[in-house]
Amino acid sequence: MILVQEILLRWTSPPRQLSDRSSVVVALIAEGNEALRTEALTRQSTLAWNLKTGIIRIRPGSGAFRLEVKYRTAETGPESSLGYVDLTSDELLARCLQGDTTASFDVTTGCDDPKAELKLDFFLLEDESFEAGLPGSVLGSNGPATDLDQEYNVASRLRDTDPDKWLTLMDISTRYYERFRAFGDTLSLARALPTFGEAIGIVLDRAPPRSDQHQLLRDKTELYVTAMTEFVAAFREYNADAINCLSDMLTGSTAMYILLYDRFGDRGDLSRAIDLCVQAKSIVPEDHPDTPIHLRRWGMAKMLRFRFSGEVEDINESITALERSVRLTSESDIDLPDRLTNLGTSYVLRAEYSRNLKDVSKAIAAHTRALTFREDYTLLFNLGTAVLLRFMFQRDLTDAEAAVMTLERVVDLVPDGHPELRRCLGNLGVAYHNRFEVLHNIEDIDRAVTTLQRAVRALDSTGDDAPERALHVASLGNAYLCRADILLEDNDMHLAVETLKRAVELTPTGLAHLQKRRHNLGRAYATRYERHHDPADVDRAMVEFEASLGLLPDGHADRPGGLSMLAGALQARFGLKSDMDDINRAISLSLSALNALNPEDYRRRSVVSILAASYVHRFSVTQDPDDLDEAVHRYQEAMDSTPADAENPLRQCAAIQLAHTLKRRFDFKNSADDLDAAIENYRIAATMLNGVPWTSFLAAKDWARAARSRGEDGHAVALQAYGTAVELLPRVGWIGKSIANRHAQLAAMGSSLTTEAVAAAVAQGEHCLAIEWLDQARAIVWGQQSKLRSSFDDLRAVAPALAAKLDRVSRALDTAGSRDAAPTTDFLGTARLEEAAEEDRRTASEWQKWNTLLGHLTSLSDVLDSVGAQMEVVTDTESPAQDQRRRAEEWDRLMAQARAIPGFEDFLRPRTFAQIKEALDRSPVVIVNTDQLQCDALVLMEGLDDVIHIPLDSFSLDHAQRLHRGLSHLLSASNLRRRTTRAAKMISTDSSVASVENVLAELWQRVVKPVLDSLAFSPISVGNGLPRLWWCPTGLLASLPLHAAGIYADDEPGTKLSDFAASSYTPTLTPFARRSLSAAKFNGILCVSQSATLPNAAVEVACIQKVAEKCNVNCCALQDEDGDVQAVLDNLSGYGWVHFACHGVQDIQEPTKSRFELHDGPLALLELISASFERADFAFLSACQTAMGTDMLPDEAAHLAAGMLAAGFKSIIGTMWSIQDEVAPTVAEQVYRRLLSGSVQPDSSQAAVALHHAVQMLRKQDDTKTFSWVPFVHVGW
Q1: 440: left (phi over 0), alpha (psi -120 to 50) or beta
Q2: Using an 8 Å Cβ cutoff, are 968 and 959 in contact?
């Protein structure tokens, strides 16, 4: 019911009919009859009469009626008319629906009467007394309409943040509308429209929809459009303001469709938004107050379409519309900041397309102006994005810093769980990535990865169809690729490719971003090819680059970069197939790219570098000196374009490329100037402070070799270069990486540099320098772990707080470094638990814990499956790696602080020769160095200040390679992989190596005998003590049995090393940890055996127990099922001596996964490294391959025996390769019989002597010359 509750009647001049005694009423005339009349109006003046208490009831849908003004001059006099107003119930209803509560109407009066106006105050009220079936009525008082109104009243009281509110309002509005359609009830339509509008407003402002609500919102919004259109059609003729209702509907509906597109990426939503914008342009007058709003919606819709269409017309129309919207908006309008920031965003998009710096400046100005009105995260976000783009154009550090600071502030302002958080995180991740490219701080690229992972995870509820997911996945892939370039970790390389592939899959065909994403995927393939040299990656890269270029129109700002990258891929294919068409096309493409760039464009450096490389490739075939000259010219151009004071990888890369090409031209033309220039550029690349360590190392190595090409004049420079390379080794195998990754990096470098550097130093008579380099370059990883376990007592005395920090960080790094290499992960850095639990992917205790946990989870999963639920368990592998890098950075900072303290300048620095000599408590130590230049033995003796140099003139690198190859063939042919009962004889398959006797004889004649002769060793006399000798071989010699060298064709004395001394091996020049005089008292032996896989293991343990019992020594045996991983680890902390009788496996690909195979799984080397055994003293590893390193890391001693040394054990007996099961008990019994006998406490330092005697006995029993005794070795001190 429409209730008129107040009436005001006004004349322009006093009507002649009225006097002070007149009374005035208003009568409602319907269908010719007076339906009701008001009480008498009160006279306010001669011009105005009003009534505040009377009420006129008008039924919606009741049709036309007349309000007639009547008067009489006396109470009983006749009543006459002063005028009237003709109205309809629908006209009043229309005004109610648009929110009006008052309206004025002209009164039709007589010709001679003054003009009059009737003003009505009214409102819409439910009337519960309507009878069903009457025109314009609804159902009775207890019907659905009343219930629906009650539901609305309840829903309207809910908070807007309540997730059910807008859904409930949508449902109520729909039912109102359905009632209107069923009964023609305009009151129900009156209820439906504002309820629709309220629900849409909540969605737009507070309640981001889920993917399963997409279609619902589509349908309801379309219903709202239809309902409002019907309303306007029905009431527009009665109400000139109905256009306002239509404008409001178009504004809200367009905003909803834009939201749906932005949220779910369905282009149908964007098309519908554009249709509504077109409708608004045609219906809403240009001078209408809502015109700035409609212009903004039009500009936003066109901007969004540009994102996928790439049509310049779209973004130009967007900017035009948004500029006009801003101009039409007053400074006091609360929407001005939003319109400014929309305009700024459009400028950014056009700048990305055209690389127009002016548009970026306009964007920053618009966003900055918006922030003068208010500060919120949206405005800050857009400003940060614009500043980030300006950085990408100009590479100005100030912009990089400003972008990060702004976007960090944005993330702080956005509430947790808010849908905009993911977008803010995405851009912050990109900002971190870009700042890394300037400052080269690894923490920035780590933050980029972590932040982008958060952004992608925040999209989990939206499904893979969300366009925003593709954006963040692409950014994450680029961050992985960047980090892979710096840290050289294969897992990052794998993740980069897989993530960028996923980004391409998520990007719809036709979207403008597809071009860039395919380009970046091509870059990932090209980078992986450089790393692993898989020809298929070249083909994949070319497919992506060609496809990316095919999506770019001529003149697009990204075409030069695409052409250049395609040229690089053609180079790589030329290197594989030598097709001249490929290299000629590469040069042509690079020149085209270069011509399209202005001289100031920072991208010219990379384009010029690729062009230069193409000339070098073509020269390799044509030998045309012009190509080589052009290559030098172009590389010099790239070098000159980088500021001379720039300490960054770009200048480093330019320097090393120029140096390579100059050296090549020197080799071709023999110009001394070229060689000198090459040496200088190698030096620049090698010594750059912020250079990539791997690149610095390669440059240093080539610097040294180039300097040696100068002959005598270059020796001093060569030694300087070699010293730089050696110093870089710990940076390449950085402590911020896991041990497995450090080993991988060191393996990739090869061992030749160390032996080459030592040979060069020895050749110049710098023997002490050679020893220092060997000390730095051997067992780098074990040395790092040893430093982490150093005592900080001296530092604690002068800087206790600093010492405490170092102690904390060192303990954390010691544990973190022993983490396993990250398992195969998805692009979010997570791995399925089932994959993480694979035996060959985890350490021993982790393997056990995973399996236990998996058992619980499997049971729980079964329960969940029974109720239709599913469970996926993931583990985060990104955080531990980043934590380790942060701790390593902190370690470096703390080291710098410690070394700034007077007296601590050399704190934990590489040792000088004097320090090495001071730490030497066993000798002689014989270092055998083998290099192409020369082969030498360097001997350290206690009490001798100088190094004894023994030239090995009859031995060469070729000899070492031949012996190593022959022995490897022997081992393979004999199947000496596992401990076996078969007494295999090693038979040669290499004609140059007749048998193992030949290997041992040649080692004797060419290496060992010259050393013994120089040291004046004499054969052992009966009754005299047994001399000791420690071997420290380098390179390939590390896998050859020097300890067994000799002539075994007969038993003539003095023809075998064992006739002169008991041999030990040491992976370092001095012990990892010096023997403590207060070492824990010997308290027995822990024996671990697995007879299920080694039949004689039980016999072996029984022999040890028998000897121990006879010597009154405690012997704890963990046999078979008792010998599980956790039990062994628990008992190792309580026993100083341990004996393993089980299978041992050397993992050649990942040495830190070498392991003992126990009852319930592997006990890996990583597990032993991470442990800290206070009582650790002696270990007998009666397993296979426990002292066999890997050819990829000969100087790292990456085997189980060295791992036990790093875990704190001082003396180890191990095996270089597989041993026979029947032999092991004999050797073990003899070793323990000698070690445990006597009245004094057992001494592990006598283990080498005990092994010597045990092996001699075994050798004498080896009538068939199986050489089964050869694998047994002593390692340590």
Answers
A1: left
A2: no
DSSP letter at 1008 equals I
Q: Exposed (0-12), middle (13-18) or buried (19+): which is 789, by Cβ within 10 Å?
A: middle
Q: What is the pLDDT of residue 1103?
A: 94
| C-alpha atoms less than 13 angstroms from C-alpha of 282 in its C-beta half-sphere | 6
Distance between CA 1070 and CA 1032 in Å, rounded? 10
237: its two tokens: 């003729």
Per DSSP, 1056 falls in state B
Q: What's the angle, vertex CA 1045, arms to CA 1040 and CA 1051, rounded to 5?
A: 150
How far, in Å, CA of 811 to CA of 803, rounded? 12
C-alpha distances in angstroms, 1129 versus 19, 23, 1213?
Answer: 115, 110, 19
pLDDT in tens, 1098-1108: 999 999 999 99
The ranges of the chain with pLDDT < 50 are 128-145, 819-876, 977-985, 987-989, 1073-1078
Please state, in angstroms and as integers, the Cα–Cα distance from residue 452 to each residue in 414, 471, 1091, 1093, 1150, following that order. Answer: 16, 10, 51, 48, 30
Reference 387, options 347, 421, 415, 333; nearest CA is 347
Q: What is the pLDDT of residue 788?
A: 65
C-alpha span between 1089 and 1123 (Å, rounded) = 7
Reference 1193, options 779, 771, 722; nearest CA is: 779
Q: Residue count of the chain, please give it.
A: 1277
The DSSP-derived string for 1013-1043 is: HHTT--PPPTTSPPPEEEEEE-GGGGGS-GG
Q: Please give the radius of gyration of the chain, using alpha carbons only, rounded to the nearest integer.
A: 44
- Say if strands 33-37 and 23-30 run parallel, antiparallel, or are unpaired: antiparallel
**Cα–Cα distance, 946 to 912 (Å, whole number):** 13
Q: How far apart are CA 605 and CA 637, in angstroms?
A: 8
Q: Determine the pLDDT at residue 825.
A: 41
- Digit-coded pLDDT (tens) for 477-532: 999 999 998 887 888 999 999 999 999 999 888 777 899 999 999 999 999 999 88
pLDDT at 1139: 95
- Give the SS3 label for residue 545: helix
